[in-house]
Description:
Blueprint: E1 2-7, H1 14-29, E2 35-40, E3 45-48, E4 65-67, E5 74-77, E6 81-87, H2 97-113, E7 120-122, E8 125-131, E9 137-148, E10 151-159, E11 179-180, H3 192-206, E12 211-214
Parallel strand pairs: 1-2, 1-12, 3-4, 9-11
Antiparallel strand pairs: 2-6, 3-5, 6-10, 7-8, 8-9, 9-10
Amino acid sequence: MNLEWRISNDPVPYPDAIQWMEARVAAIRQGKAADCVWLLEHPALYTAGTSADSADLLQPDRFPVHQAGRGGEYTYHGPGQRIGYVMLDLKQRGQDIRRFVHDLEQWVIATLAGFDVVGERRDGRVGVCVVRDDGREDKIAAIGVRVRRWVTFHGISINVNPDLEHFSGIVPCGIQEHGVTSLHDLGIAADMAEVDAIMRRTFLQVFGASREAAA
């Protein structure tokens, strides 16, 4: 199987990203395009997943709100956050959605480990958190996926250096008892190029059945 990497250095409007993914997913399903991982940032916005509770949108007029069509609840996206949209044909990977989500979490955990950050899963909470020195748990990465005829889209977001105050307009992923953090908040001054390099390496370690087709 071939894998194409697509990297956007300028923020991509959310509707444009959805339109592009929809077209790519259709092409993958028809056997006309390779699997693809797209690394990008969005302008500041909120997205609502299929399980979103309107009560969790605390400041509805603060940023644009988009219906995402993916699983999950409300999520913030914005500058300083690395998003990885993952378009894979699961018919070539065992047709196991639960395993796919687990592997996305493992991809995040392996990427964080590249910066000596310990990311952890929690039962019943999709995504990855870190435990602070005082024992507090903060979320550092969110996961939301959609699968259409066994082709995946949407994916993950890792907080590199976003404005964490922007998360205050929602209850992130419907979880009130935990906060959010970022690599910079943890004292790691990583830039996007460094994050991208590690994400590319660790993706191929976790999803090892694919090989790169193009940079």
